[in-house]
Amino acid sequence: QVQLVESGGGSVQPGGSLRLSCATSGRVTSGRGMAWYRQAPGKQREWVALITSIGNTNYAASVKGRFTISRDNAVSTLYLQMDSLKPEDTAVYYCNFLPATTWGHGTQVTVSS
Questions:
Q1: What is the pLDDT of residues 10-38, one digit of tens each?
Q2: Which residues are within 8 A (CB) of 38 and not within 5 positions of it... i.e. 6 or more apart?
């Protein structure tokens, strides 16, 4: 059973940066695509960014140019560098495989002045 553990969230002011991490366990992840998702209060979970097994990336329009997804297969970890954060980025952020499997607990990101 693969476990996904998100970390790195916190509270920042608008314009600030955070780097999220997603540690995986139980199986080799290098051959699988992975993605970040987020869920804001009162809204459905939405896709944020993805990275394929060969490193190709894609981003939701709302974060393109501000967020960067990356992975380190040697340590089975997925990252999301978030720059120029806006209040509308406030949400719980989750990682998962493509296609999605069991969800982790997520990590809270709050952007507020």
A1: 999 999 999 999 998 755 566 889 999 99
A2: 45, 46, 48, 89, 91, 92, 93, 94, 109
Spatial contact of 95 and 3, defined as CB atoms under 8 Å apart: no
Q: Are 86 and 96 in contact (CB under 8 A)?
A: no
What are the Cα distances from residue 97, in Å, to 17, 24, 46, 58, 72? Answer: 24, 10, 14, 14, 14
Q: Minimal CA–CA distance to 103: which of 1, 29, 3? A: 3
How much is the pLDDT for 29? 66
Collapsed DSSP state (helix, strand, coil) of residue 87:
helix
Strands 33-39 and 91-98: antiparallel
Question: How does pLDDT run across 43-101, given as a tens digit for each residue?
Answer: 999 999 999 999 999 999 999 999 999 998 888 899 999 999 999 999 999 999 998 88
The number of residues in the chain equals 113
Task: Please report where in the chains the tokens 């960014």 appear, as a residue.
Answer: 49
Q: Running DSSP on this structure, what letter comes out for residue 28?
A: -
